[in-house]
Amino acid sequence: MADLRKNSRAFVTEFIELYRELPSLWMVKSKDYSNRDLKSQSYEILVGKFKEVEPNADRDFVIKKIKNMRDVWRRQHEKIEKSLKSGMAVEDIPTPSLWYYDLLNFLKDQETTRSSITNIKIGNKDRV
Known about the structure:
The chain has 128 residues and is mostly helical. It has helices at 9-20, 36-50, 59-85, and strands at residues 121-122, 125-126. It has a two-stranded antiparallel ribbon. A hairpin with a 2-residue loop joins strand 1 and strand 2 (125-126).
């Protein structure tokens, strides 16, 4: 399986821009996000793009690459957000080391946090 680091920045930039143009794959609040046919068509477009550098690319391959890019982006984004919320001085806030961090910033509004559930009792009341 090809490693994204082995692909040129120009290719990865083009791939991310193409991904951004296919909101059925990433815009959770879009009605198209639930449309399986549209999603399949969108993945086929991305597979075609990736076959330029990896002839054996298929849908699963592309999905793994996207997941990997999003996971790395999310970790850096959470690190920055945590620093901002902590009241850290501006000069101490970490700068993203991921070169394509800004290219994936369109995902910022798509990140949702899960509410946690606890069974810890506080006083005489259960918290849920």
